[in-house]
Write a structure and sequence with these properties.
The protein is about 45% helix and about 10% strand. It has a four-stranded parallel beta sheet with strand order 2-3-1-4.
Length: about 180
């Protein structure tokens, strides 16, 4: 027999999952036990490393994370660090189909070390307003983009300090240096 306190946690987990699926209009996905375990640990406040096979559904975990976790403030934001253009483009397409707000902090085409730590010549940021205002649930960023002044300032802004609930590293094996 499952102890009552454990049953309460299990019910809380499945209620949150059901709410998340309803919010995101998902009705045809059956989670695998490993995915449920990841959600359980996330709900309990633990960090999770998901080393699972290709096609297993790791991305679904962070796609739903902003709505799954208890609301921190106005809008939960999940920062997704990913080093690959093609993966980010594919993720954005899937998220658009699902109706989940997502955007990307773009790198300049030619990145030179001096420009990583400074704004453009006008001192202006080119960050989309929807990202600046924290309107998107998922914000993708390249590891290098997080080194620039404008992205660091964005992450220090009250919108991001109050609303970022998790940072996800996608395709971590492709990052040559951490």
């Amino acid at each position: 027999m499952v102890p009552f306190f454990k049953m309460d946690k299990i019910l809380q987990l499945f209620c949150r999952l059901q709410q998340t699926f309803l919010i995101n209009n998902i009705n045809n996905i059956i989670l695998k036990p490993q995915q449920v375990k990841c959600f359980e640990h996330l709900l309990n406040g633990y960090d999770v490393i998901g080393v699972l096979p290709t096609g297993f559904g790791k991305s679904l975990l962070f796609h739903l994370l902003a709505d799954f976790l208890p609301r921190k403030s106005v809008q939960n934001i999940v920062l997704v660090v990913c080093p690959l253009n093609s993966i980010i483009e594919d993720q954005l397409k899937v998220l658009e189909v699902r109706g989940i707000g997502a955007g990307v902090l773009h790198l300049e085409q030619t990145v030179v070390p001096e420009k990583l730590f400074s704004c453009d010549e006008n001192g202006e940021s080119e960050i989309p307003i929807s990202i600046k205002n924290g309107e998107l649930k998922l914000v993708f960023a390249y590891p290098e983009s997080l080194l620039s002044v404008r992205e660091r300032e964005l992450l220090k802004s009250s919108v991001y300090q109050q609303n970022v609930v998790r940072c996800v590293i996608d395709e971590a094996h492709c990052v040559s240096m951490w």
